[in-house]
């Protein structure tokens, strides 16, 4: 009797285990279905058909027109750069650049040899700014910069010393919000990136630097005040006169292009000889009802330092792409237990998954996606992820990067459309080149190739043959020095 009872108990336990196993299996299936549903919905919401991309481009063109009409008339600032004379490639001599945009600044010395020799030599020095100078007084900061510049200039080759009565010429890249008032002047609107020096807000920053240059006895004149996007156009234009625009796709994103002055109603100055003007679009602030925004984008924007602003930048630039992927993974962890019954704590940390990490996962070609597994372990402390989970991570990277790349292509298409270069008229095969810079474009290969193929798709075969994409790095340094050369006060003056 005891044996029978024991046998019945064993059978009952086995049956119960089967039922529990079936329940777990059923629960596991339901959870996985939820993961796939989240992925499917996200993919559909990020969809970028050619029709939608053309609508985005059209909306961009409308905003460009509005921004050129009057100040504040558009979400695109369409800032007049006062650069109406881009490098021709003929420039010769020695020029300097100062690139100030963060906790370090760079000084550059560039030797130009004209059409035949191009950029002969580039020397550069990076200087770290002591933290106390970032919140002190303007004269302390600019005195420090001027002193460092003077030290750098002291190693200048003897044969390039300026003639008596002349000053060295400097291109100044100042990567903070500025209201430009001429090619070589502009008032600071506000500081960012850890700087907070109240006494220079609303003042001409070139004037502040000039006072310090004079104080240390450095005979140097700022001939061009620019931002890095305008510098990208100049850098590319020096070696290729077909360049019409520059685009930065990096941590942030922006574009500048060459516009006809008669298409800028808000320009009230003298019409330049060139008839052209470089416009700094500040396109990161673009938004449109045609942009494919998701709940994750809206949550990212709401939690950002500038909610409601820079919407376009938040869906296509390197600062944000990795965090969008993280936010979708977090929802999968919370609602479908993709990483087990507890949400990995690190997954809740904003920006812990950076875009370079996302790129590495996206480019993982190993059969077991070992790079993906290692990234999930090292960054998010998630061990032993199954292959199907790693595949989900790669699919998310693909959805986010494809959306960003295709929207970037649509925006470039918008510039070409505004300039009438999106079609070939009467067999005119005039070449138009877009110069690109930034880590996203340079290092995220799948993003770059998707962007380029989408632009070809938007243009069609015939027009595509007239449009070129060119990598042009260091517009903030070399580009600034080249603009100092093209804006030189000594152009056409005999050296003797």
Question: How would you characterize the overall build of this protein?
Answer:
The chain folds into two domains: 49-80 and 241-473, 3-Layer(aba) Sandwich (Hexokinase, domain 1); 82-226, Nucleotidyltransferase, domain 5, CATH 3.30.420. The protein is 45% helix and 17% strand. The protein contains 15 helices and 13 strands.
The tally of helices reads: 15
Helix content: 40-55%
CATH class (first level) name of the largest domain: Alpha Beta
Count of structural domains: 2
Please give the order of strands in the largest beta sheet.
1-11-10-9-12-13
Report how far apart the termini are.
122 Å
- Spans of 5+ residues with little confidence (pLDDT < 50)? 15-24
Sequence of secondary-structure elements: HHEEEHEHEEEHEHEEEHHHHHHEHHEH
What can be said about the biggest beta sheet? 6 strands, mixed
Taken as a percent bin, the fraction of beta residues is 15-25%
CATH architecture of the largest domain: 3-Layer(aba) Sandwich
* Shape, per Cα inertia axes: globular
Number of strands: 13
Determine the structural class based on helices, strands and strand pairing. Answer: alpha/beta
Mean pLDDT, all residues: 91
Radius of gyration: 28 Å
Annotated CATH topology of the largest domain: Hexokinase, domain 1
């Amino acid at each position: 009797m005891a044996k029978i009872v024991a046998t019945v108990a064993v059978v009952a336990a086995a049956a119960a285990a089967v039922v529990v196993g079936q329940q777990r299996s059923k629960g596991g299936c339901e959870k996985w279905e939820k993961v796939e549903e989240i992925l499917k919905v996200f993919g559909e919401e990020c969809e970028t058909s050619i029709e939608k991309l053309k609508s985005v481009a059209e909306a961009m063109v409308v905003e460009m027109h509005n921004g050129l009409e009057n100040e504040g008339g558009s979400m695109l600032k369409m800032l007049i750069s006062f650069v109406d004379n881009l490098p021709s490639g003929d420039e010769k001599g020695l020029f300097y650049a100062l690139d100030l945009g963060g906790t370090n600044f760079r000084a550059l010395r560039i030797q130009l040899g004209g059409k035949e020799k191009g950029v002969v030599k580039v020397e550069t020095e990076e200087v770290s700014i002591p933290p106390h100078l970032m919140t002190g007084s303007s004269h302390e900061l600019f005195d420090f910069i001027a002193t460092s510049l003077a030290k750098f200039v002291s190693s200048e080759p003897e044969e390039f010393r300026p003639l008596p009565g002349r000053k060295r010429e400097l291109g100044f890249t100042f990567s903070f919000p500025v209201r430009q008032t001429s090619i070589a002047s502009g008032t600071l609107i506000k500081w960012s990136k850890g700087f907070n020096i109240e006494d220079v807000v609303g003042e001409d920053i070139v004037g502040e630097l000039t006072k310090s240059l004079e104080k240390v006895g450095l005979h140097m004149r700022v001939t061009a005040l620019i931002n890095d996007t305008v510098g990208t156009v100049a850098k590319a234009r020096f070696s290729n006169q077909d360049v019409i625009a520059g685009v930065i796709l990096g941590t942030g994103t922006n574009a500048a292009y060459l516009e006809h002055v008669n298409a800028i109603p808000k320009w009230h100055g003298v019409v330049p000889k060139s008839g052209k003007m470089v416009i700094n679009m500040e396109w990161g602030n673009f938004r449109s009802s045609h942009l494919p925004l998701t709940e994750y984008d809206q949550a990212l924007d709401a939690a950002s330092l500038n909610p409601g602003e820079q919407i376009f930048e938040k869906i296509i630039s390197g600062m944000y792409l990795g965090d969008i992927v993280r936010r979708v993974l977090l929802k999968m962890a919370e609602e479908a237990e993709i990483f087990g019954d507890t949400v990995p704590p690190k997954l809740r940390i904003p920006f812990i998954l950076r875009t370079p990490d996302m790129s590495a996962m996206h480019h993982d070609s190993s059969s077991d996606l070992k790079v993906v597994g290692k990234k999930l372990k090292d960054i998010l402390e998630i061990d032993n992820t199954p292959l199907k989970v790693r595949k989900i991570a790669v699919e998310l990277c693909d959805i986010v990067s494809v959306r960003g790349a295709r929207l970037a292509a649509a925006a470039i298409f918008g510039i070409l459309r505004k300039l009438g270069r999106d079609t070939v008229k009467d067999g005119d095969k005039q070449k138009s080149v877009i110069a690109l810079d930034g880590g996203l474009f340079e290092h995220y290969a799948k993003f770059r190739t998707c962007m380029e193929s989408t632009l070809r798709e938007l243009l069609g075969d015939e027009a595509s043959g007239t449009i070129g994409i060119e990598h042009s790095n260091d517009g903030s340094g070399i580009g600034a020095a080249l603009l100092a050369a093209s804006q030189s006060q000594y152009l056409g003056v005999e050296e003797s």
